[in-house]
Amino acid sequence: MSNVNISVSVDDEYADKILEVVADLQAVGMNIENIMPILGVITGSVESTQMDALSQVKGVNAVEVSRTFRAI
Q: Which of 21, 58, 66, 72 gets the most CB atoms within 10 Å of its CB?
């Protein structure tokens, strides 16, 4: 099992309840790094085995693996 960096987009209907969504994501095992309420995005990391559980959290629209790019 390994940690993956992720971005979670919050459903528009839950924009004003983003802190509740954050709490529910943490309860499932997500480590929160950044909350962007205006964009409706939460970033952080989670064990790869918990990805499906995150997508089941009420108010979550999508869960995506974050990509890191480096200049060569």
A: 21
Query: Alpha helices of 1-72 — where are they, by DSSP H?
Result: 18-28, 51-55
Q: CA distances (Å), 69 to each of 6, 38, 41, 56, 66, in order?
A: 14, 25, 20, 29, 10
Greatest alpha-carbon pair distance for the chain in Å reads: 41
Q: Where are the domains of the chain?
A: 10-64
Amino acid found at 18: I
Mean pLDDT to the nearest integer, 30-42: 96
Confidence of residue 51 (pLDDT cuts 50, 70, 90): confident
DSSP summary character for residue 32: E
